[in-house]
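Box 4.2: Ligand-aware structure prediction
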Amino acid sequence: MSDPISQPCSDPGPTRALSHQAAPRLSIVIPLYNESDSLGALHARLKATVDTLAINEHELIFVDDGSRDDTYGQVAVLAATDPALRAIRFARNFGKEAAMAAGLRAARGDVVVLMDGDLQHPPEQIPAMLGCWRQGAKMVTMVRKSRDTDPWLRRVLSRGFYRLFKRVSEVALAEGGGDFRLFDRAVVDAINSLPERTRFMKGITSWVGFRQETLEFEPAERAAGTSAWSLLHLLRYALDGLSAFSTLPLRIWSMIGVFMAMCSGLYGVWLIVRTVIWGTDVPGYASVMVSGLFLSGVQLIGLGVLGEYIGRIFTEVKQRPLYLVAERIGFDEANR
Ligand code: UDP
Ligand code: MG
């Protein structure tokens, strides 16, 4: 039996007849922050999709990232009627990356689907993702066909970010690939084994490797509410990603430093030669000011870059947990 595949995998590989592949256990992990308005529709659409799948069993893992609205109350109501629903509630808002990490740690399935809770990631794509996994993919990344649902400034900035990332980092990110992905158990175990605290899921998923496929999908408009990501928030996220996966910002300053030292050495030699030949003249006040200011600017930037990485080291050595859990539903004591 096979699932309806709306789009073929880009590179269908050999299908191996593993027993769990015929009827896998599926986990669907969803971070939620103030999503009470779309929760009912989300749950209904997930259930309708899951019912069409040839799977053994499924679980829905809703991670409430410290919502300020009634999200968790509604999750609890849904969980009362749906035994497949398991929920985690954070003690406060720890951010989407932490929520995704918690969900991936809790997931028990052979296949794990990660998606947003605002219905921008249509649950109806899950059969196609599963089909791709059946053909041997260990990770299926859903890539947006268009960014039309984003404001233009965000589109421009994010395109620039992907270009920059590709140049300076050891991992390449799938452009337009968000957090709508399917993982094989092997990939989930690999991700769960990473100890770092500054999480950048887009980078982590490329870093772990494995056989990756992409499928295109058309993102929907947000079902309700507004995006929790302001531009400043996104900029911070981009800096986190860059400094977590690239050391170029550190190295580039030593290169500039060497270059400037060489230039000033040559300039010094020229000054000596000039003084010997033409004697001293009154040195220009402007040029002294300009070079002084320029150098202090470069030094400040260099310090800032160092600060970025030292901040990262600081968060890692503090050894704080990624998140704190206030409540759980559907977790027995042995499986915490
Ligand atoms: N989210 C979260 N914690 C946060 C912000 C967002 O768990 O601090 C969740 C949110 O509920 C949604 C997903 O992450 O399920 C994507 O968030 P959003 O739609 O705000 O991001 P965008 O689609 O604009 O990238
Ligand atoms: Mg969204």
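In the box above, the bound molecule is uridine-5'-diphosphate. Residues 31-33, 35, 65, 93, 95-96, 99, 116-118, 120, 227-229 surround uridine-5'-diphosphate (ligand 1) (CB under 6 Å).
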